[in-house]
Write a structure and sequence with these properties.
The chain is α/β, with parallel strands linked by helices and 213 residues long. Helix content is 34%, strand content 23%. It is built from 7 helices and 9 strands. A 9-stranded mixed beta sheet has the order 4-3-2-5-6-1-7-8-9, with helices on both faces. α4 packs parallel to α6. The chain is globular.
């Protein structure tokens, strides 16, 4: 877990946040850091990935948290169980594309139910909504988010979702934001800076953070 980040931004159980900012501003790494905050080894983590294959996501996340294979599950939306991935593994699920929202939802529900049945908390990450919006329309993506974030709240899990800035219009972004409890804005100056909107935790003014693994 990167030093200091958990003191700056702590996401309560039962809530979901949207991480948004320009491209190439370490939003994926910030997602990993937020998923890894606290005692990650004692809970479950599920990552939905639309841009990198499962085995890469697993390796990258483990640079932030020392978690066992039973505590890290991945929904891979691009590999189709291809080279470098073991489709038969119980901790990975593959769907046809980032636009297969039904398949993603089924896989996510399976992993969330598994953690719930084991009596452990979990954090859910999704990178990236930007890719999903290239494959599916805004209404379907919002409906998907409404269901997933609702389940996260009901189970008292935590959700971290990523969206590139200006992928959608301000009007459409305001619609997507209705599915989340807060927004974590990211920008790059001399160092990475974040601020939080819509919550009583985290910095309201732009605050430098370190997410070195």
């Amino acid at each position: 877990m990167p030093d200091g980040l958990s003191d700056i931004l702590s996401i309560p159980a039962g809530t979901s946040v949207l991480v948004t900012g320009p491209v190439m501003t370490s939003k994926r790494r910030l997602m990993y850091a937020l998923l890894a905050a606290g005692d990650a080894a004692s809970r479950g983590t599920t990552v939905v990935t639309t841009r990198k294959p499962a085995h890469v996501v697993e390796r990258e996340f483990r640079s932030f948290a020392d978690v066992s294979s039973e505590r890290l599950t991945v929904v891979d939306c691009l590999s189709h169980g291809g080279f470098g991935d073991d489709e038969g593994g119980p901790m990975r699920r593959f769907v046809s594309s980032p636009g297969d929202l039904t398949g993603i939802g089924i896989a996510l529900t399976e992993f969330m139910r598994r953690y719930h049945d084991e009596g452990i908390a979990a954090r859910i990450g999704l990178h990236s909504l930007s890719t999903m919006l290239m494959y599916s329309d805004l209404k379907r993506v919002f409906q998907f988010l409404h269901v997933v974030t609702g389940r996260i709240a009901a189970l008292e899990f935590t959700g971290v979702f990523v969206l590139d800035e200006k992928v959608v219009s301000e009007r459409d972004e305001s619609i997507l934001l209705q599915a989340f409890d807060a927004v974590v804005e990211v920008r790059q100056r001399e160092t990475l800076e974040v601020r939080v909107r819509g919550a009583d935790y985290g910095p309201r003014a732009w605050t430098p953070v370190s997410i070195d693994d």
